[in-house]
Design brief:
By secondary structure, the protein is mainly alpha-helical. The chain has helices spanning 6-20, 24-36, 40-64, 70-89, 97-107, 113-138, 143-163, 169-193. The mean pLDDT is 82.
Length: 194
């Protein structure tokens, strides 16, 4: 019971990730390492496994809502799955994939933010599964942490898929810009700290 507080944090992280199309592992891996105290390998593995459940549930919900653009998702997956497998084998995480694809779908392809986010979640759910599978085969998962994060991301992904539905496109674009700027600052600060 000492790690129960991971549950509400997981709800918040997952709500943000699913509603904005940001990689959940981007939040969870540093959190598991810096706050929970897992080793880098355990943190990445726990982040990926947590992300599989959160993004998988988000994927299911966005598919039910019929907002995934499968044409663009196929193109994104063609390059993403091999890259994630190579990245997982070399110790990298999926950070950046959904942030780049969501931004490009909105700016260059003129896809409405809600569909861009849903398509990024679709792509990330599949690539996270590939990465988590490779990582799970090469590391011991931190089940004492994951048992609290998975229920949280299931709730957060439900909330996140509903939040985006009620935000106007213009507000969603501004919200995504703030989230991506925050994610960028987090990545830069983590790189500078290491």
């Amino acid at each position: 019971m000492e790690l129960w507080w991971i549950f509400p944090v997981s709800i918040v992280f997952s709500t943000i990730a699913i509603s904005s199309g940001v990689s959940g592992a981007l939040f969870f891996s540093p959190f598991f390492m810096l706050v929970v105290g897992l080793s880098p390998a355990q943190a990445v593995g726990a982040g990926l496994l947590t992300e599989v459940f959160g993004m998988g549930n988000g994927l299911r919900l966005y598919v039910q809502q019929k907002v995934v653009d499968y044409g663009w998702a196929r193109w994104l997956l063609a390059g993403a799955v091999p890259s994630v497998i190579v990245g997982a084998l070399t110790g990298m995480i999926s950070a950046g994939l959904p942030e780049i694809s969501t931004t490009q779908l909105i700016i260059r392809c003129k896809i409405v933010p809600r569909v861009a986010v849903a398509t990024a979640v679709f792509t990330l759910a599949i690539t996270a599964l590939a990465g988590a599978t490779v990582h799970a085969l090469s590391a011991a998962p931190a089940w004492h942490v994951i048992q609290w994060s998975i229920p949280g991301v299931l709730i957060g992904s439900f909330l996140g898929s509903r939040v985006g539905k009620h935000l106007p496109a213009a507000l969603m674009e501004k919200t995504l810009a703030v989230v991506f700027a925050g994610v960028g600052l987090l990545v830069v600060s983590l790189q500078l700290a290491s």
